[in-house]
């Protein structure tokens, strides 16, 4: 079954963009997933194809109208379409691998890309949209965020990644609650510009390699993402399940 993505955007020409190349592009060519970008403007009934209006209460910027967004959603999703509707917005809950995983195991997703100041909240709630942010910074629209989310989902679809790109042992697997950042990687040559690869990796002692990697993961997580280590400690006291 093809995993189906539909993107609602004012800039359909931005798609597939980078999703048409590399791993995601190959997956699309092989029919493992599909991408349809729909112009929100096509849902406008205004003779000037207006989609936005000024915010009630005043303030800068424009707001996408609820009626236009509703019509765009209705046109994109037939009654009973089982796919979740995700609204990309800096107001959203932070994107995590757990959401990526649950979207990737479903039938697909419909992604609404905001522009301007935002989208009339009534349609966001009436449609039960899942509001998602890809990080604590503001993009000029949701399109790049939608591409990030799609890339993260598509690489998990069965058949998209080969053994060479295994997703089993990476940061945030098997679940980011308790996961650590990944250990560092090295390949040949064993010495480069006088810099030696850590000796333990050349030793052939699998248990020691695993122990070293675990220690590296903990150290880098402590330094960069102590928030993750806290959930890890909570989990450790219940049942130990590191990323190995
Ligand atoms: N639109 C603008 N900024 C965004 C962000 N950080 N995440 C998701 N959508 C956005």
From TrEMBL:
Gene3D superfamilies: 3.40.1280.10, tRNA(m1g37)methyltransferase, domain 2. It catalyses: guanosine(37) in tRNA + S-adenosyl-L-methionine = N(1)-methylguanosine(37) in tRNA + S-adenosyl-L-homocysteine + H(+). GO terms for cellular component: cytosol. Residues 5-230 form the tRNA methyltransferase TRMD/TRM10-type domain. One of its GO terms (molecular function) is tRNA (guanine(37)-N1)-methyltransferase activity. It is an enzyme of class 2 (transferase). The keyword Transferase applies. Residues 220-238 have a biased composition (Basic and acidic residues). Its EC number is 2.1.1.228. Residues 215-244 are annotated as: Disordered. Keywords: Cytoplasm, Methyltransferase, S-adenosyl-L-methionine, Transferase, tRNA processing. It is found in: Cytoplasm. Pfam families: tRNA_m1G_MT. One of its GO terms (biological process) is tRNA N1-guanine methylation. Belongs to the RNA methyltransferase TrmD family. Homodimer. Specifically methylates guanosine-37 in various tRNAs. This is tRNA (guanine-N(1)-)-methyltransferase. It comes from Muricoccus nepalensis. The lineage of its organism: Bacteria, Pseudomonadati, Pseudomonadota, Alphaproteobacteria, Acetobacterales.
């Amino acid at each position: 079954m093809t995993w189906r993505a539909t993107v609602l955007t004012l800039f359909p020409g931005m798609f597939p963009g980078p999703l048409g190349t590399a791993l995601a592009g190959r997956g699309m060519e092989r029919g493992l997933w599909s991408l349809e970008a729909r112009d929100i403007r096509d849902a406008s009934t205004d003779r000037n194809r207006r989609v936005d209006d000024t915010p009630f209460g005043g303030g800068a910027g424009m707001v996408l109208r609820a009626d236009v967004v509703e019509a765009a959603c209705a046109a994109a999703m037939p009654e009973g379409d089982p796919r979740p509707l995700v609204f990309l917005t800096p107001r959203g809950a932070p994107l995590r691998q757990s959401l990526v995983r649950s979207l990737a195991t479903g039938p697909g997703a419909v992604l609404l890309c905001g522009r301007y100041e935002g989208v009339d909240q009534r349609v966001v709630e009436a449609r039960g949209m899942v509001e998602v942010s890809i990080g604590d910074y503001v993009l000029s629209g949701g399109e790049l965020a939608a591409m990030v989310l799609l890339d993260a989902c598509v690489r998990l679809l069965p058949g998209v990644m080969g053994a060479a790109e295994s997703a089993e042992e990476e940061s945030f697997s098997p679940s980011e609650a308790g996961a650590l950042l990944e250990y560092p990687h090295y390949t040949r040559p064993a010495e480069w510009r006088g810099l030696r690869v850590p000796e333990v990796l050349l030793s052939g002692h699998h248990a020691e390699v695993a122990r070293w990697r675990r220690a590296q993961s903990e150290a880098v997580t402590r330094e960069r993402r102590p928030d993750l280590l806290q959930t890890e400690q909570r989990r450790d006291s219940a049942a130990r399940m590191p990323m190995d």
